[in-house]
Amino acid sequence: MREGRWTTVTESEFDHEHRGLEAIREKLPDSDPWRAWSNFTFTANTGHVREVDLLVVAPGGVCMIELKDWHGSVTSENGTWIQTTPGGHHRPHGNPLHLVNKKAKELATLLGQNGRRVWVGEAVCFTDGGLRVRLPAHDQNGVHTVAELVAMLQQPPRDERRRITAIDSREIKTALDRIGIRRSEAEYKVGPYQLERKSFDSGPTWADYRAGHTELPEVARVRVYLSERGSDATLRRSVENAARREAAVLQRFRHPGVVGLKQYFPSGHSAGPALIFDYHPHTLRLDEYLLQHGKKLDILGRMALVRQLAETMRSAHSSRIHHRALAARSVHVIPRDRGRQGQAIGEDAAWLTPRLEISDWQIATQRGSGSGGATGQGMTRFAPTALSAMHLSEGSDPYLAPELTALSADPVYLDVYGLGVLTYLLVTGKAPAASQAELLARLEAGEGLRPSSLVDGLSPDIDELVQAATAYRPGQRLSSVDEFLEMLELVEDSLTAPAATPAEAEAESDTPEKDPLEAVAGDVLGGRWEVRRRLGTGSTSRAFLVRDLEAEARRKRPLAVLKVALSDSRGDVLLQEAEVMGRLRPDSRVIRLVEPEPLHIAGRTLLALEYVGDERESSDDAAEAAETGTRTRPRRREETVARQLRERGRLQMDQLEAYGDYLFGAVDFLEGESVWHRDIKPDNIAIRIRPNRTRELVLIDFSLAGYPAKEYEAGTEGYLDPFIGTLTRTAYDSHAERYAVAVTLHQMASGELPKWGDGSVLPRMTDQKEVPHADVAADAFEPAVRDGLVAFFQKALHRDASKRFPELKPMRDAWRKIFLDASQTVPSSHRSRHPEPVVEQPPADGGHVIADAEPLTADQQRDKLAAAVTRETHLSSAGLTPAAESFLYGLGITTVGGLLDYSRSKLLNAPGLGTKTRTEVQRRQRQWGKLLREESLSPLTPKGRAEAKEELAQLTVTESAVLGALAASASASGLTGHALRSVSLDTLATIFVPELNNNRSNSNKVEMVRLLLRLPNERGELPDIGVWPKQKDVAESLHLSAGRIPQMLKEERKRWKKLPAVQALREEIMDLLAGLGRVASAVEIADALAVRRGTQLSEREQRRALALAAVRAVVEVEQLEPEEAEFQHQPNRKATEESLAAGLLALDVRDGDAPDTPTAPGLLDYAMRLGRTADRLTRQGTLPTATTVLNEMGALTPPPGLVEWDERRLVELGAAASANAAATPRLEIYPRDLPLVRALRLTQAGLVRLIPGVPETRQPGLTGEDIHELVRARFPELVVPDGRGGSTHELPTGGPLTKALRDAGFELTLFTREDTKTLRYLPTRMDSASSYLTSGAWRQTTDTGAVTRYSDDPLLAGAVRADERLVSSARQDGYRVLTVHHGRTVDAVRELTAPRIGAQAVSVTELFLESMHSLVPPATKPTWETLLKADVAEPGSRGALKFAEYATTAWGKVEPRVRELLKPGAGSGPVLLTEAGVFARYDAMGVLDRLGEAARQGGRGLWLLAPQPDPAREPRLGSVAVAYQAGLGEWIELPDSWVKNAHRSGAAQLDGTEGDNK
């Protein structure tokens, strides 16, 4: 194609790109309708500036082409393309087809707006013909070499109506000219920064560019926010708010774990606002980091990264900032540039302990509430609207909490969920699902996130942490980041090695002093301070709890806190803090220095402060754990008033009085010392628990006390006096200090911060007459002191400082008078001051009453009281905590019946309600509703219908409050759909089923709808009519003719179709289908709806029934006019289980879909073929592995068109379309009715952990629930016989479970645990093979831990990782491939067969030769010499063929012998196959594969030792690659450092073939 027809808009900057374009140009025809444009940009309607490598107009259509000059090979892992360069480096890339597809659609839209509607296809072209493309089939659609691309472009169109003629080609050229495909330099400049040509990341409303400063040697990341062309004011305002919100959060919150904002330009770019960030050129996203460097991380390193994230989020929450959308893409990973002693380090070591920064704060909230709940008066300064989620990147979807888009989602729970999902990612290396829709369906189905289902040998504590943080019901999650960190500490304790012995400590004494920032438990800093644990990281320092080894000699308290400056510049802040604190006289109300002067250790500045947490912390917890054999969640050791407010809500009246009096006393003391604290807030008021269990409050953190008064903006927003900095008040003053005191008192009294106006403008911009003082949260105050508090705060928080309290003393007197007046009018508690005495009845025989040997705990006493209530029971006797009781009294509720009658939605939104208190009240409300038979059994009861009406009314009010002006704007109709998507399933059921008339004339119709949708009746009973009822079955149940049902149903279909709620539901279902690859099971859609919409019904079966009713109603509406249907349904009548019988849904081709979009019938047919394949696989004798499953399903021909399913989705759909198949998390296929005995054997669920040194009577053992969880983690859909001819998901307990365990080979017996009185399993003989010691399975050796913690040497770190995996794998079944340097084979075998690992070495060559010798006995023909000659005969010759026959027979003898060794009773350790090259030499890799598969089914493990020149390269036997499953961690590299025992001996010098490990 010549110039003119081929238009080069911009000359390529890169030679490789120029060569690729030339290679394509030479092969394209130079005739109509062919045209091409290369290297141009266009601005999409969204505002994104898009770069296009090549656009070609061909007879078959228009195609946009992305050129990639990659070398080496390209594979796919978890949806990410991995390029392996010829040098062996791995480079992750997002699938380029996704971006070019988006750009093609955007260009097609612009072409249509400029006179020519045409479909623009997309393709990726690899210009290097030598690139080895190893992508799965679903990723190869649209991927071509140059020759393949030209051949594709020359193909005729599938549909002649889409053929491009010469006239069409000229019209497309004219439309492109109108669009303006030119390069504008103005679009690549923001302030003094020049942007690179291509953005390296983008989201729906923003694009990130790497940029260089025009005058300074400085690199930055520039985020440009983009407003869609022609969008209305609402959308433009939303984009501007997102940019302003992110800038405001990052300007206020500076932290080393958060991206650093350099500048904010509200109008810095022609497309919209721009933010300039600090940027390290080697920054990776967290998912990219794990793909490149994850294999080098041990579990301790992974949990250290989790701690970084959690500590950053805790610091953010203490500043009342909540991210709300944590995801892999929002975490930046930056390599460490220096070692712990400041020395230079290598690239590998730099990535082993990187620094994490959290980015993407565009939908963050700055909350004004210190308590739980998300709808308090002081909610937020930058309240995200219903449009906020549109600003998130598409890759974030699987990580987002289910309730993110709810109108009143609690941001604390959102961040806890995000931390839990990121922990799952860091541990497994994989996202929890491909999309949020897929994850929601799994959560509702009861499949919690359990990392151990993908990673062998994990501590069960990690599973518990992830599950506690990611429970799909927010109220069941950990209630705060503090609780998350406490559980994380438990995980770290289970992984951390014991302290070093004295001899080891002496040996380490010669090493350079350790950087205090990197200290871990057991370290001794400065020869005096023994580190107990890390407390957290703030913006200037990192805090450690330490034990003062010289405390007794110096007569000081044993525990202290060391604050370590994060850098030299931040060390100046600590020096300033020490100078201020050093001037203060000792006072128990203010934190004190342990050492008067700052410390200097290893070049760091430190402060030694007194510890103000739980002083009972000592060795008590450890002693108790050792005695009882339990490892419970550690006692909470650091408590602040802020945490108490978040969890328990406002303070009770007597506590409020005491806390307020303390605060006034502390501030009065500081005034006497001429010191302003300048950061008074609940987070800086610690609660000290003395050894005698008494409490006192301590004011902490004097880091701002030394700031000059002129710097009046220093402090925490919300507590800063907003009227300082005016002409009359130019510096910080005592009024500002007392303002912070007043705000803190207000937060204690209400759980909320005061507000100024509606929060839309700054306080000083509000009208002086309309807003003379802050709006106080009067409704949240206790009634007895409400009036007094309102008057107090209106004066203390007046905008005019002259009208506030003039001094601290009158302010304190006014505070005390409030409580004095209250005590003289009403009692301070609803409890009776004269309780009736409890009279104990003596026994009938006159004997003495014997008290319980072990009195009940407080929680047990409350549960006992709660289980015995009636409607008339007073709340003081109902088992509530004081906080919950006090809160309910404030609402006027005094009895259990009153609580049951109170609206659940009003209770949820009540002000001043703490997270834990809310959870407790909701739990008791559900418990008592069920106990007293007042729980909602069905939404179709009169009470259920009334609650539905109330929900719709409340939804309208809430939406208006949250959306504010948006709800009243002209575009509010677009938001109604979002609001309707919040309607619960209970309310939808009342919409579907018409209300019964007074004369019952419509009773048949009401009952017909209820039965067809399979909704519960008023008693909560589901119709026994099948999960997807047929019309004839409904007719039989109602005794009506078969023709009457369609008549009534047609009327209902028409009614449903008109309802906005049903229209919104239909759109939501189609969105879910699109997110799930255009086809999904009805149950999968229903489960996702159940999580999104919610229901008051608690039973899983009822919840699913309600969700399926919603799906069924939409399917019925769609079938009203079949020719207009946009999706199709196909039932699965052959299914053995109801969840499968509901069938499949598939999206059909719609207007605007690509020409290669598959049709719904084609997708459904393909899914059913996958289902039949899955059923066939379940009938195999052994459990098919993921490799087998993917090979079998991948062999099926997909329907015409583009099917974009990853491997997991392919297997899940096959299981969903089957009659009796299900998939494990590892993509194995199993029958749903898999025998329980076999499931127990495959999961090794009967192995009991024994804790050394703990008596048998106190061993934790295995509970029935533990066994159930282990089985469910591997086989989530397993069903067992129910004894009535049917099946159930409920696994057996007691005797049946014990019998199944014994049948599976686990000799276990149920015993009662002495201390907890609970039943658990222990080995019948404590020395049996059904047990193992935790010290070996869950703890590393002392030396290993030391190397992991202290060494920067990547070789030693690699040795530790290998050792951990070997020790863990040695106690499990399964297959492992071990690669070792061929010169270290003998040493490796010696280490592997040592008692510590205990492998049994078996020479494959020896077995093969023995079998061959047995085939040629002496004095027979052929002779052994003849056989040896045949071995080296020419391939294909008669001798070679004859030898192959003998070899095949010999392998037939070898395989059974190895299988015998793999049986459970054949030995204790794994079977280690050595000298295994004969597998490859004599064409027996299939034998090896079968043996590996046998090992995966249970019994002993099978290990294959594969010597090779470089152990880091993928395993091979000779020149033949060894198959293994990467997802199961089956390849273990044995570096030279492990073979030489360097990690255990401490030797750092390696000799021999060290260079081969590069």
Write a structural description.
Residues 498-520, 618-641, 825-844 are annotated as: Disordered. Keywords: ATP-binding, Kinase, Nucleotide-binding, Transferase. GO terms for molecular function: kinase activity. The protein has 1558 residues and is α+β, with helices and mostly antiparallel strands. It folds into 9 domains: 6-183, Trna Endonuclease, Chain: A, domain 1, CATH 3.40.1350; 184-279, Phosphorylase Kinase, domain 1 (2-Layer Sandwich), CATH 3.30.200; 282-495, Transferase(Phosphotransferase) domain 1 (Transferase(Phosphotransferase), domain 1, Orthogonal Bundle); 516-611, Phosphorylase Kinase, domain 1; 646-828, Transferase(Phosphotransferase) domain 1 (Transferase(Phosphotransferase), domain 1, Orthogonal Bundle); 858-931, 5' to 3' exonuclease, C-terminal subdomain (DNA polymerase, domain 1, Orthogonal Bundle); 942-964 and 971-1148, no CATH class; 1236-1336, no CATH class; and more. It has 54 helices and 49 strands. The strands form 14 sheets. Strands 11, 12, 13, 14, 15, 16 and 17 form a 7-stranded antiparallel β-sheet that branches. The longest helix is centred in the last third of the chain and has 25 residues, at 1438-1462. Residues 368-387, 497-510, 622-636, 826-854, 961-975, 1332-1352 and 1546-1558 have low confidence and may be disordered.
